[in-house]
Structure formats: C-alpha cells, structure tokens
Amino acid sequence: MEESVKAMAESVKDLEGKLVGLRTKRTARELPEKERSVLEEEDVKKLHAMIRQLNGHVVMVENHEKVLEKKEKELEAKVGKNTRRVCEENEQLKMTMELQARSRGIRGRRNLGILMLQLGTSSRSSRPF
C-alpha cells in the first residue's frame, strides 16, 4: 500500500506539473489571437502616424491658403490703385486734347482773320483810287 501511495503521490506531482504546463502554455487558439493583437497594435500605431502626417499637411495647406488670400488682397489693391491712376491719366489726356483742339480752332480763326485782313489790305492797295 505504501508503494501505491508513493506511486499516487508521484502521479499527482506529474499531473500538477502537466497542469502548470498547460496553464502557462499557449494554446493553438491563443497564439493567433496574440499575433493578431500585436498586428492590431502596429496597425493602430501606423494609423496614428498617418493621422499626424495628414494633420501636418492640413496645417500647411491652411497656411498656404492664408498666404494666398493675403496675396490676392494685395493684388486687388494694386490693380485698383493702377486702374484709378490710369483713369486719372486718361481724363487728363482728354482734357489736354480738348484744350489743344480748342487752341487749334482759336488759332485757325485768328490766322484766318489775319489772312483776311492781309487780303483786304492787299486788295485795297492793288486797287486804284
């Protein structure tokens, strides 16, 4: 009987060892789950890295848009200023041309009057009294 108790005690120790081994050993189902969780963690890290990168691009695009809006406003102001300047110059040229036309007309009439006077005096001097 003592032998049987010793055999049973050894059997119990073996079974306890196997139990500990089974508890600590991963099963065939646990291995893929662990690998999947590692892959999922890597995917999440990659996703977060991509999100950070996209956020950086969004910030850059927003900054470029602000610079572009500023440049457009500056260009509009410059175009408006140039347009006003050109309109003012055109008005001044119109006035100058009108004055020159009037001056030519006045000068032409004056020259005509002088010519008529000259013709009148020359026709009188050529006429016998």
Automatic annotation (TrEMBL):
Superkingdom of the organism of origin: Eukaryota
The UniProt entry, under InterPro entries, shows: NDC80_plants
Q: What is this protein called?
A: Uncharacterized protein
Which species is the source of this protein?
Answer: Actinidia rufa
Q: What is the lineage of its organism?
A: Eukaryota, Viridiplantae, Streptophyta, Embryophyta, Tracheophyta
